[in-house]
Amino acid sequence: MRIEKIIVRDFRSHEFTKVTFTSGINLIIGQNGSGKSSLLDAILIGLYWPAKPKDLKKDSFLRVNGKSTEITIFFEKDGVRYQVHRNITRGIAFAKYYDGTWHYVTDANQKAVRDWMEKLIPYDIFVNAIYIRQGEIDAILESDESREKVVRKVLGLDKYENAYKNLLEVRKVIDSKIKGIEEYLNAMKNIDDMIKEAEKELSSAIRQINELSPQIPRLRREVEELEKKLDELDKLARELEKLKESKSGIEKSLEGINAKINSLAASIAERELKVKELDEKVKELEKIKPKAERYKELEEFYKEYSEIKAKAEKEVERYEGQISQIKERLEELEGRAEELEELQEKISKLDEQLGELEEYVKQYDEALRIKKTIESLRKRLSLSGEELKKLKAEIENAKQRKEEILREIEEIGEKKGELKNATSEKNKAILELRKAKGKCPVCGAELTEKHREDLIKKYTLEIESYAKEMEQLMRREKELRAELVKIEKILKKEKEVIANEEIFNQMQEHEKRLSKFNLKELEEKVKKHENLSAEKNKLEGRLRSIQEELKKKAALEKKKIYLERKISEIKANLYEYEVKLKNLGFEDIDTLKAEIGMLKPIYEKYLKLLNSQKELKAEKERLQRDKNELEILKEKKAGLEKALSEIKERLGELEKDYSKDEHERVRKEHIKKREALVKAETELENLEKRKEELIKNLENLKNEKENVKIKRKELEDLKKARERVQKLREKVRMFKNILKEDALAKVGEYASEIFEELTEEKYSGITVKAKESKVVLGVIYDGKERDLSFLSGGERIALGLAFRLALSLYLAGEIPLLIMDEPTPYLDDERRRRLVDIMERYLRKIPQVIIVSHDEELKDAADRVIRVRLENGVSRVEEVEVS
Questions:
Q1: Residue 35 annotated in ligand binding
Q2: For residue 95, what are the domain limits?
Q3: 843 marked as part of a ligand binding site
């Protein structure tokens, strides 16, 4: 399979993206979040939707503000070109192949395309053999446990594990059903005895029903006759009781009416007497009314005049006091005008003196600012002068030492390369010697076993010598790099040195400017300026105070005129009341007061008699109401006496026809017969219900007897099924273990071939051992098995990639296409360089490789680079051919 092109529209951050893939290594590169991994997700969704990993959810496909998510993929397999198109939003899909023209191969729906794609390239093969996900290579190298998880996932061993567990659940269900049936059969073991007992009870119930049925009609007739007789007696008893109650009620009403008649007669006599007394009081009220009204008029005028006169006198006194104060204040303000002119003259002289000192103040402010700047710069210094000089010298020495170390590291690198090449050549020679027959591949002479062993021993010693030298070089390189780290820490302080030198220079410049000022003289001038300013401020404060006081003069004069006018108005108002007093017939207030005293007793008597008219009217109305009510009660009394006579006559007639003893005897006999009837009916009803229940129960027992036979057969079938499930479960477990062992053996062979090639035959193979929840890897070096700690960082990444590719080869048989998602996120510099080397030397053998990464180093090994970047939330793609 080879992917030719993918077109994506409104998928995640991609608005419209078209990417063409070529043979060789295609690198999709970009920063995190740019949308590069979304292209791999689009390939997976485009080919296999809706079969998908758990982390791909339809809700997250459509781009923000997008209309419809569409994915189109062009690919080639076995010489035939195909096209798959999906519109995820609308649920439309189709697949076509090309043989000069395009032909549809499926119906236009998502499931049909997915099923067709599954037949062409199974989903499990694609995601496990072709697609290497992020972190898988690192997981292979991390630990034996994480490696076992990768193997289990890629080889699909989880399916067998799940099948093994699910069969256990099936067995538990069967066991539960077996237990239930056995309990049921145990409960039904006495079914025949239960049927016989039910038939016996049914016969007894039918016999009792036949005995009881004839008794009920006879009892019913007797009860009906007694009910008829009892109804007649009840009717007579009710009428008697009702007449007695009426008689008693009328007698009580007559007693109440007689009492009310007597009470009303007494009340009428009292009211007639009270009406006469009130009539005398009304006559006296009319006689004293004019004098009472004269008292009220004079009393009201006296109160009003007294209040106004007292208030007027107080106000006049207060206003005259305010006028006196205003006059005194106006005299004081005349003296303030002269003081104002003196103050203005003093302030003018002070302004002249302050103007002469202003320049000195500015110079002093500038000197203080410079001094403050120098202090601020001094606080920013992190080094003293001596420390600065010493650190500069130390940095210069570090720079020289860094150059020396880098040169030495470069020389060590060259020597390591030479040693690797020499080691590789000796390993090749050893392999050739082991395979050679006849002539020596080294010198061309006849190859004897002794000659072969001598040469292998010689070359092995040389390889060990190279290894020791390589170890010394690596140790030296490690020491140099450790020293280089310390030197870099020293060089980082260069910025601090430069910053301190700059601060020292600024301080010197400011100190030079500060030396130009005579600070002692300036301080004296500034102090004098401050004293004069304080004196001026004091005088200006006094000046403003006087000006404010003088502004109040006009207001005071205005207020004085207003107060004098108010006094005149008060006196005029008081004069009007004195005129009114004379009009009332009095020369002064004392004669008015004497007149009021004389009329007061008459007014008080008038007030007491004032309600007599209303009381007289109300009492006459109450007297008339009592007389009317007395007439009505007399008429009502006559009617009740007549009704009482009629009731007594009817009572005498009824008491002759009714016997209380007979009534009680009939009632008791009726109750007795009625209870006997109810008892018989209830007993018959219960027997009928019992009969129905027994018939139903008997039928159920017979059905259960048939069901017992069915359950026994079902129990036999379930026991056989349980045995089959248990055997199948053992087979699944055995097959999973065989498959795992076989797979790991084959994977080990593939991985050994790839790893030998990746390490230029430095290692002669890989060992793969399966343990419980672990897959243990080892390497063969110089005929001995070594663990992974023996490998360098680059060799470990080569081993991880070899093992993962071997898993893909086991699943697919060959690798025409390889997709790798972020293979370098956890790799250091050495391992990234090794991966680039592997890509150039080995991955290029695979017809098509697609790698997604953010690592710029990988582009050196790529045939085609596809750059992805994010602009305003939209992914943009740029395709670059690499020469």
A1: yes
A2: 2-134+814-881
A3: no
134 assigned ligand-binding residue? yes
793 is in an annotated binding site: yes
**790 a known binding residue?**
yes
Tokens of 34: 């740019």
Closest CA to 47 of 39, 59, 55: 39
Find all residues with CB under 8 Å of 529, minimum gap 6, and list them: 354, 357, 358, 360, 361
pLDDT per residue over 591-630, tens digit each? 878 888 888 888 888 787 778 778 878 888 888 888 888 8
Cα 13 from Cα 10, distance rounded (Å)? 7
With a cut of 70, say whether residue 52 has pLDDT above it.
no
Helix (H) or strand (E) holding 513: helix 494-514
Q: Which residues pair with 77 in a beta bridge?
A: 80
SS3 216: helix
880 Cβ neighbours under 8 A, 6+ residues apart: 864, 865, 866, 867
Q: Is residue 417 part of a domain?
A: no
87 is annotated as contributing to ligand binding: no
Which one is predicted more confidently, 866 or 159? 866
- Secondary structure of residue 346 in the 3-state scheme: helix
The total number of structural domains in the chain stands at 1
Is 791 annotated in a binding site? The answer is: yes
Cα distances (angstroms) measured from residue 353 to each of 349, 359, 534, 536, 543 = 7, 12, 13, 11, 19
- Rounded CA-CA distance 292/161 in Å is 124
pLDDT tens-digit map of 652-703? 777 777 778 878 888 888 888 888 888 888 888 888 888 888 888 888 888 8
Degrees, nearest 5: CA angle 77-80-85? 80
Q: How far is CA 346 from CA 349, 352, 354, 614, 755, in A?
A: 5, 10, 13, 92, 107
Residue-wise pLDDT for 300-342, tens only, equals: 888 888 888 888 888 888 888 888 888 887 777 777 777 777 8
Residue 513 is assigned to a ligand binding site:
no
Whether 99 is covered by a domain: the verdict is yes
- Give dist(CA 337, CA 551) in Å, integer: 11
Query: Is 36 annotated as a binding-site member?
Result: yes
Q: Are strands 784-786 and 874-881 parallel, antiparallel or unpaired?
A: unpaired
Q: Residues 551-565: what's their mean pLDDT?
A: 82
* Whole-number Cα distances in Å, 394 to 385, 408, 498, 798: 14, 21, 14, 43
The answer to whether 639 is annotated as binding is no
Model-level pTM?
A: 0.42
37 known ligand binder = yes
Contacts of 168 (CB under 8 A, 6+ apart): 729
Looking at residue 107, which CATH number applies to its domain? 3.40.50.300
Is 38 marked as binding a ligand? Answer: yes
Q: Is 6 helix (H, G, I), strand (E, B) or coil?
A: strand
Residue 661 inside a domain? The answer is: no
Query: Is 109 marked as a binding-site residue?
Result: no
Q: Is the pLDDT of residue 74 over 90?
A: yes
Residue 253 lies in a domain: no
Q: Is 61 annotated as a binding residue?
A: no
CA–CA distance, 239 with 664 (Å, rounded to integer): 17
Q: Which two tokens stand for residue 388?
A: 């600065």
The Cα diameter of the chain in Å comes to 179
What is the rounded CA–CA span in Å between residue 588 and residue 571? 17
Q: Is position 183 annotated in a ligand binding site? A: no
